[in-house]
């Protein structure tokens, strides 16, 4: 199957040794090769590569053209693709959102103004949020300025925090896997989540006038979710769309829908009162 | 919510004697619960009638009542102790049923006692299948179609509705599925339904559509008061639906589910648990999935700690019973730390970076005429668990752990490969199904063919086919010719050196196991030891819980302390169960007190000895020569202790001696010599100690000659026995011939010992400790049943009730004489027969016995620890008087428990072959007590041959 589809696979790795190494030394570049087998050469190669810190990768995995995915529902959501997961798209479409998905780079403000979405979504994606933020913050700030609901996952979460002046930092080791416990500070309930990130919003730089911490990781108490005080926004560091992974956090999509519905209701009410 | 302060004193109900379906896993959970509550500062009151449990040890609870598990006993205790709460979930079905009965009576409420850890109303729903169905319907969880019947007629109607046979019968409120089963044809319909109705205490059975052949899964869950739910482990049954999960070979984590399917089950399990009551604690949910589709049904939910939770705890390292107990007394999951890592949250789902296989252990050999087909009613008496980096490795290790004389999954010379026989055997589920799948591949069968017959998922079959392909590749090779990479691949697939030696011996002459080992080490192939840490190495773990693998880095650090290796007793079976694990745990404690680092090797997931915080280091490995020697060579302990692990450990004795490894305590030659009845009798003769007339024979003719010489009745025993395996009494020549011929047919190399059977003699069982100078008598127990009934099956009274002072004096004298002349260091058990005031020695066992825990509980002395300390060099005179003084004022009675209700086709009869699965302890004041009078009245009733 892998051969047929041209997919690289690897097996027979002492995963424990590998994890123990990273656990004590921190994240690092790695090299896998079936061609060059001289260890020293390979290590040099890995060392020569850029560090993840400062690396802009979202631009490499994003789509090139905007795309619309229709649904039966009445809502319009503008989604920004920094490496968006299909399951996120599915979860939003299933809930009645027609999505207009935009590439990471480019100026779509005019189109956005015209299309007038009911909400904005900022996706997950690889790389250093500070690097991606250099070009992406512009549109994030635009979204915030519209007063419409904004939802961010993973890299999107970090970008939203950055837009509010809260920096992200590189973690010693990232959070990976499908068994990360996250506590919802609103309900006190714990969600088992899928995570895959090496940067995190800096908990020491939280500005309480701008955000409220809604979720924390139970293993290391790092920030996993934020509610924004100056605009209707929320974001999570983990993957509520998890696929593979547990479905405990799917309610966040429902909540986003509630925010959108609330927003459109207000709009309708304003409309009525204006009449 | 943090720890509850409104309760202070908690009553724990134990599970009582070991029976099929309810074994020492409840000692494991009960002792974790006790320790957990005590850690939190609660006062613990405990009731359990099973003396062979660690949970009934003095340090486990504040007040311990070794009393029958009845409502009366509980009331008596409650009235004396006034607990604030009762925790019934650690005592299996027994504990729950008691709590439920008292609840119905309104007893708990009346005494202002809260039930914690379970919601009785929830249990009632889950155990009453109709109510369970209704609830599942309400929350949209799919199930098999079924309906409850209270008569055979009703059962017939329902069967018609369901589209006819096969159907499944499930009686309400029975343990281990007792009385249940599949009905395949009309002939057995009425009989099986009737039996189910009779066995159910409410006389109701569920008639259910058959989902025979579907894939079966179990999920272990924990829930706290806040309604947080986590899945600790998912176990997949390799045997598809139709076989009780206790009888199935199972694997963790699940191997053949897609993420979508798994999440579907996970979501359903969480929904189910949240739907039943509001209790905080452990829970087990079972599902079936139709092969090739995503259709699933919920089978059952058990809102308590179970056998599967013990397995899940050992498989993941996550101590379910301990955490469940903390949840029961108020803590929330997110307030607790994962005890394995120490600083990450207990509210998470373990990741497993290895494969666990559980294989059940059966004892059909004990019950002639028993139906060996596996059904929905559990028949296994124990289980072994194994851990490997991949499925083949774990599967081979499981077969090394079972102690059925195998060196792995086949490839060890015991197989008769007959196409027809293998096919027939595969058509129904039997205990040796995995082995026959291997045989089928060996005979060239395809995955499709085997999947079609057995319904086992093709993935497992492909794995076994891969194992067979390695066998086939190796068979043509020579030891020197086999490359290092190929050799490593064999070891990574779990093949033992013994299996490899057999493969290599197939073509180019005999190769011994030792030669294989030597060559393997020459090539630098040694196992490394990996940690079980719940998190796939993501966080540093604090637990010394290891398994071996032929891969990469070794995570076990050898300390510079002096060490002792203690061999465990392997899977439970009749004749060797929890009593030996009790001694193992005490051996660990004794060794630690003597300044040793205690290293435990065992493979029984139900036990306390395999709890990661008992020994200083735990190797969860088969008690199998190669595996044990690997650990020995790596750890370099001062020596090994074999005398606490029953026959499992002792069987390896000779190999330790040959390898020049120190065995603590009595010289192994002496242990061995005591097993050889011939030389032992000569020894007794020299010491002027009487014993029954005997002779040894290597054939039928010889046996008859001896019997004629010493006179009938005679006791026949094959040479190497434990639990009386294969022993019989013959009253005439015909019987003697019949039996010896039968044994010779299967074991032609066996010798027989023919003893004069002392009819109507009184049997006396004596345990003692000897240190080379002094003798400490642990207890003199007099049996109620006459000699001829296996000591494990008889009712024993401590101290003796009808022996004269002269006889007792003689017994003490013989015990000391034997101890001195055998050079005993530690345990010495001697069994005597007393007839006409004359004392005969029947056998001597210089090791820990089944009766040690009973004696410890009866006398209040740590008998096992005394003996193990002596083995490690302590002297009896150095013990304090208190340590050696018995607290027993009247009599203690040991009562056996039998599994005959599980094998309806087997007649209840007792003889020299042990059949009981467990025992209880009972303290009595006088001989008018029913517990004495009854067995006394029936003492000879069941004696057979």
Low-confidence stretches of chain A: none
What is the H/E order of chain A?
Answer: HHHEEHEHEHEHEEEEEH
Q: How are the strands of the largest sheet of chain A arranged?
A: 1-3-2-4-5-10-9-8-6-7
Individual helix count of chain A: 8
- Into which percent range does the helicity of residues of chain B fall? 25-40%
What is the CA–CA distance across the termini of chain A? 62 Å
Shape of chain B: globular
* Radius of gyration of CA atoms of chain A, rounded to a whole number: 20 Å
What percentage of amino acids of chain B are in beta strands?
15-25%
- Quick one: how many beta strands of chain B? 33
Strand composition percent of chain A: 25-35%
Mean pLDDT of chain A: 92
Give the averaged pLDDT of chain B, no decimals.
91
Instruction: Outline the low-pLDDT stretches of chain B.
Output: none
Oligomer: heterodimer
Number of strands of chain A: 10
Distance between the termini of chain B: 61 Å
Radius of gyration of chain B: 27 Å
Helix vs. strand class of chain B: alpha+beta
Which pair of chains forms the biggest interface, and how many residues does each contribute? A-B, 26 and 32 residues
How does this structure look, described?
The complex is a heterodimer of chains A (275) and B (945). Chain A is of the alpha/beta class and 275 residues long. Helices cover 33% and strands 26% of the residues of chain A. Chain A has a 10-stranded mixed β-sheet, sandwiched between helices. The longest helix of chain A is centred in the last third of the chain and has 24 residues. The radius of gyration of chain A is 20 Å and the shape is globular. Chain B is of the alpha+beta class. In chain B, strand 19, helix 20 and strand 20 form a beta-alpha-beta unit. The radius of gyration of chain B is 27 Å and the shape is globular. The model of chain B has no long low-confidence stretch (mean pLDDT 91). The chains are: A alpha/beta (275), B alpha+beta (945). The interface between A and B is medium-sized, with 26 and 32 residues.
């Amino acid at each position: 199957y892998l051969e047929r589809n041209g997919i690289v696979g690897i097996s027979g790795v002492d995963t424990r040794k590998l994890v123990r190494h990273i656990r004590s030394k921190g994240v690092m570049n790695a090299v896998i090769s079936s061609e060059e087998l001289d260890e020293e050469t390979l290590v040099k190669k890995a060392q020569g590569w850029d560090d993840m810190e400062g690396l802009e990768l979202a631009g490499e995995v994003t789509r090139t053209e905007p795309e619309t995915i229709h649904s039966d529902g009445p809502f319009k959501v503008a989604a920004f693709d920094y490496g968006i997961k299909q399951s996120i798209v599915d979860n939003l479409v299933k809930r009645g959102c027609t999505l207009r998905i935009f590439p990471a780079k480019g100026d779509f403000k005019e189109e956005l103004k015209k299309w007038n979405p009911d909400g904005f979504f900022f996706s997950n994606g690889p790389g250093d949020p500070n690097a991606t933020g250099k070009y992406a913050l512009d549109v994030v700030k635009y979204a915030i300025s519209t007063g419409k609901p904004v939802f961010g996952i993973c890299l999107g979460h970090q970008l939203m925090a950055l837009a509010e002046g809260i920096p992200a930092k590189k973690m010693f080791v990232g959070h990976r896997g499908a068994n990360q416990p996250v506590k919802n500070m609103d309900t006190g309930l714990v969600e088992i989540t899928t995570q895959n990130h090496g940067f995190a919003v800096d908990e020491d730089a939280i500005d309480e006038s701008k955000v409220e911490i809604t979720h924390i990781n139970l293993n290391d108490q790092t920030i996993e979710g934020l509610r924004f005080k100056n605009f209707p926004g929320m974001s999570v560091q983990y993957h509520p769309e998890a696929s593979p992974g547990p479905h405990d956090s799917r309610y966040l999509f429902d909540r986003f829908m509630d925010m959108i519905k609330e927003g459109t209701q207000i709009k309708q009410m304003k409309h009525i009162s204006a009449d | 919510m943090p720890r509850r302060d409104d309760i202070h004193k908690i009553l724990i109900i134990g599970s009582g004697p070991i029976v099929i379906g309810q074994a020492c896993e409840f000692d494991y959970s009960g002792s974790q619960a006790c320790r957990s509550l005590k850690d939190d500062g609660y006062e613990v009151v405990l009731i359990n009638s099973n003396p062979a449990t660690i949970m009934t040890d003095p340090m486990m609870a504040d007040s311990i009542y070794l009393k029958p598990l009845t409502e009366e006993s509980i009331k008596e205790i409650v009235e004396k102790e006034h607990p604030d709460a009762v925790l019934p979930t650690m005592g299996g079905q027994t504990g729950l049923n008691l709590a439920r009965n008292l609840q119905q009576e309104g007893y708990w409420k009346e005494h202002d006692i809260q039930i914690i850890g379970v919601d009785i109303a929830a249990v009632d729903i889950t155990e009453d299948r109709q109510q369970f169905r209704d609830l599942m319907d309400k929350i949209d969880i799919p199930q098999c179609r079924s309906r409850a019947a209270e008569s055979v007629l009703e059962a017939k109607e329902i069967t018609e509705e369901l589209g006819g046979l096969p159907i499944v019968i499930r009686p309400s409120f029975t343990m281990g599925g007792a009385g249940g089963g599949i009905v395949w044809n009309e002939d057995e319909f009425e009989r099986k339904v009737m039996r189910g109705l009779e066995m159910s205490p409410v006389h109701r059975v569920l008639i259910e559509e058959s989902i025979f052949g579907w894939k079966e899964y179990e999920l272990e869950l924990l829930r706290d008061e806040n309604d947080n739910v986590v899945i600790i482990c998912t176990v997949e049954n390799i045997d598809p639906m139709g076989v009780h999960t206790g009888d199935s070979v199972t694997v963790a984590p699940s191997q053949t589910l897609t993420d979508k399917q798994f999440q579907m089950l996970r979501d359903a399990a969480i929904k189910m648990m949240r739907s039943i009551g509001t209790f905080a604690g452990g829970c087990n949910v079972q599902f079936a999935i139709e092969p090739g589709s995503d259709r699933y049904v919920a089978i059952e939910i058990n809102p308590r700690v179970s056998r599967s939770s013990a397995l899940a705890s050992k498989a993941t390292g996550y101590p379910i019973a301990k955490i469940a107990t903390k949840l029961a007394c108020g803590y929330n999951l997110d307030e607790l730390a994962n005890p394995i890592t120490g600083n990450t949250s207990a509210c998470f789902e373990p990741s497993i970076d290895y494969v666990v296989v559980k294989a059940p252990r059966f004892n059909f050999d004990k019950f002639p005429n028993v139906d060996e087909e596996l059904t929905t009613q559990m028949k296994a008496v124990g289980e072994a668990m194994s851990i490997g980096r991949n499925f083949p490795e774990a599967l081979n290790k499981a077969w090394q752990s079972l102690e059925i004389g195998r060196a792995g999954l086949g490839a060890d010379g015991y197989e008769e490969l007959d196409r027809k026989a293998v096919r027939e055997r595969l058509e129904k589920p039997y205990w040796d199904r995995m082995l026959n799948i291997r045989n089928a591949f060996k005979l060239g069968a395809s995955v499709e063919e085997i999947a079609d017959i057995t319904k086992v998922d093709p993935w497992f079959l492909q794995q076994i086919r891969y194992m067979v392909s390695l066998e086939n590749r190796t068979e043509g090779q020579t030891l020197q010719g086999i490359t290092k990479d190929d050799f490593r691949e064999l070891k990574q697939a779990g093949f033992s050196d013994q299996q490899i030696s057999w493969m290599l011996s197939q073509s180019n002459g005999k190769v011994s196991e030792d030669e294989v080992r030597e060559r393997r080490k020459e090539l630098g192939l040694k196992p490394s030891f990996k940690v079980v840490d719940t998190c796939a190495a993501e966080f540093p773990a604090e637990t010394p819980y290891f398994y071996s693998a032929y891969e990469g880095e070794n995570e076990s650090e050898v300390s510079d302390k002096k060490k002792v290796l203690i061999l465990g007793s392997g899977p439970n079976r009749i004749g060797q169960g929890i009593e030996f694990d009790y001694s193992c745990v005490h051996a660990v404690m004794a060794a630690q007190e003597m300044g040793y680092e205690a290293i435990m090797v065992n493979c029984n997931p139900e036990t306390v000895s395999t709890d990661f915080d008992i020994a200083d280091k735990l190797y969860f490995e088969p008690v199998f020569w190669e595996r044990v020697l690997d650990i020995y060579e790596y750890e370099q302990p001062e020596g090994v202790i074999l005398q606490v692990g029953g026959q499992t450990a002792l069987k390896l004795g000779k190999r330790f001696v040959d390898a020049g490894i120190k065995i603590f305590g009595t010289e192994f030659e002496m242990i061995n010599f005591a097993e050889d009845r011939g030389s032992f009798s000569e020894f007794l003769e020299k010491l002027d100690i009487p014993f029954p007339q005997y002779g040894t024979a290597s054939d039928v003719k010889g046996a008859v000659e001896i019997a004629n010489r010493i006179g009938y009745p005679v006791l026949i025993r094959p040479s190497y026995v434990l639990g009386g395996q294969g022993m019989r009494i013959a009253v005439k020549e015909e019987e003697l011939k019949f039996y010896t011929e039968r044994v010779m047919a299967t074991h032609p190399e066996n010798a027989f010992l023919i003893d004069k059977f002392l009819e109507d003699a009184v049997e006396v069982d004596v345990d003692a400790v000897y240190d080379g100078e002094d003798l400490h008598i642990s207890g003199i127990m007099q049996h109620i049943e006459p000699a001829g009934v296996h000591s494990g099956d008889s009712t024993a009274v401590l101290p003796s009730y009808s022996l004269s002072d002269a006889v007792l004096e003689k017994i003490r004298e013989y015990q000391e004489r034997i101890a001195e002349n055998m050079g005993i260091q530690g345990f010495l058990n001697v069994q005597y027969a007393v007839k006409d005031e004359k004392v005969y020695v029947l056998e001597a066992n210089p090791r820990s016995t089944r009766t040690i825990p009973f004696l410890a509980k009866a006398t209040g002395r740590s008998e096992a620890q005394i003996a193990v300390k002596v083995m490690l060099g302590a002297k009896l005179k150095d013990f304090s008087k208190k340590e050696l003084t018995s607290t027993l004022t009247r009599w203690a009675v040991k009562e056996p428990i039998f599994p005959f209700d599980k094998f309806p086709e087997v007649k209840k009869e007792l003889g020299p072959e042990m059949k009981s699965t467990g025992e209880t302890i009972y303290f009595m004041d006088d001989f008018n007590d029913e517990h004495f009078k009854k067995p006394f009245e029936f003492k000879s009733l069941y004696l057979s041959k």
